[in-house]
Amino acid sequence: MNDEVLLSYGGGGFEMNEFLNNFVLKEIYADNSQGLSEDAAVCDGFSKLAFSTDSFVLSPIFINGANIGKIAACGSINDVLMMGAMPKYLTLGLILEEGFSLNELKIILNSLANTAKEFNVKIKCGDLKVVPKNSADKIYINTTCIGDANGFKANFSTSKIQEGDIIILSGDIGRHGACVMAARQGFDYDIKSDAKCLFNEIKDISKYNVKCSRDATRGGISSVLNELCIGSGFEFIVEENSIAINDGVMGLCELLGFEALELANEGTFICIVDKNDSESVLKELKKYNEFANIIGVVNKKSKNPKVILNNNYGGARILNMPKGELLPRIC
After folding, report:
1. DSSP conformation letters of 74-122
2. Rounded Cα gap, residues 201 and 43, in angstroms
3. Degrees (nearest 5) of the Cα angle 297, 306, 155?
4. Who is most buried in 78, 95, 119, 136, counting CB within 10 A?
C-alpha cells in the first residue's frame, strides 16, 4: 500500500475495499471484529433517542492537545451529552484529498477510535470519499452520534429554565480557539486545547436538578449564553470576574484583537441549575476542572431578553451575540 491516499481509494472498486478493510477498519477496530460491510447499521432500540450530526474542517488538523479525529469524536458525542442523553453509537464519514499522508490518517483514526472506545461508544457505520489533489484540505470528517435519551435518566431542556436558576461554567474558557490561532500564526504559546469528551461530567451532574446544558464551541460562551437567554425568554445576569481565562489566552486575544468570551471551546460547557443544587453541581464539576464556577443567575422574564455582563470595574454592559467573521475552521 502507498504512503498517500490515492484517488482510486474512493472509486468503489477493489482499491477502495482494500483500503477500507486493510487500513481504515484496521485502525478503528483493533481486532477488526466489527466491519462496515453492510449498507446500514442496525442499532439496539431505545424508547427515546437523541442524535446529532456535525462536520469537522479543522485547520491545521493537528494542534496542541488534539487533532481533527479527537475533535470529531468529542464534538458529536458532547452534543448528545448536552441533552442529558447517554451516547451509544457513532458514524464516521471521511472526505480525503488525494495525496494525503496515510501516517497522518492513521494517527487521526486512532485518536477518534480511542476517544469513542474510552466511553463505550461504538462506531457503527461510515462512508469514504476521495477528491482530487487541491480540491480540499487534506481531510474533512463528518460524524453522527446516537444516544439513549433515557440513559442518564435526565432530560435537559431550555424550557425548564426558571427565574432564580444558577448559571455554572464548567471550566476556564477560550483555550481551543486560542490554540488554533497560535498554531496558524506559528506562535510559541504554551496553550493546549481543552478538547475532551464530557461524559463523566454529565454523568455526575445528571443526578441533580440540572435544567439544561450547552457546550460552548463556535462563538464561545458569548454565543451560548445568548442562545439560552433568547431560547428561554429570561434575562441573564453574569459576573465577568467569575469567568476564568488562561493568561496565555488573554495575551493572545490582546495581541490579535479577539474577545476571549467569543473564542471556541471543545471541552467546556454551561449548565443552568436549580439554585438548591448549584453548590453540589459545582463541587462535581470542580473534580474535572478547578476553574469551574458559578458565573451568574437567571433573572426576570422579558419580551426582549438580554445577557447583562457585570464587569470588573463596577459597570455593566449587554453581552451581545458575536457578529461578523469569527475565527473560521476551528472544528
Report:
1. HHHHHHHHTTT-EEEEEEEEEEEETT-BHHHHHHHHHHHHHHHHHTT-E
2. 25
3. 55
4. 78
d(CA 258, CA 187): 15
Tens of pLDDT, residue by residue, the chain (331 residues): 679 999 999 888 888 888 988 899 888 875 434 555 567 788 877 788 999 999 999 999 999 999 999 999 999 999 999 999 999 999 999 999 999 999 999 999 999 999 999 999 999 999 999 999 999 999 999 999 999 999 999 989 999 999 999 999 999 999 999 999 999 988 888 899 999 999 999 999 999 999 999 999 999 999 999 999 999 999 999 999 999 999 999 999 999 899 999 999 999 999 999 999 999 999 999 999 999 999 999 999 999 999 999 998 889 999 999 987 678 889 9
Q: Answer left, alpha or beta for residue 177, where phi above 0 means left and psi between -120 and 50 means alpha.
A: alpha
Cell numbers given for 202: 454529565
C-alpha dihedral sign at 75, 110, 141, 138: positive
Q: Is 74 left (phi over 0), alpha (psi -120 to 50) or beta?
A: alpha
Q: Minimal CA–CA distance to 183: which of 95, 113, 94, 252?
A: 252
Give 187's strand partners.
none
CA 196 to chain centre: 8
> Where do we find the cell 448549584?
278
φ and ψ at 117, to 5 degrees? -65, -35
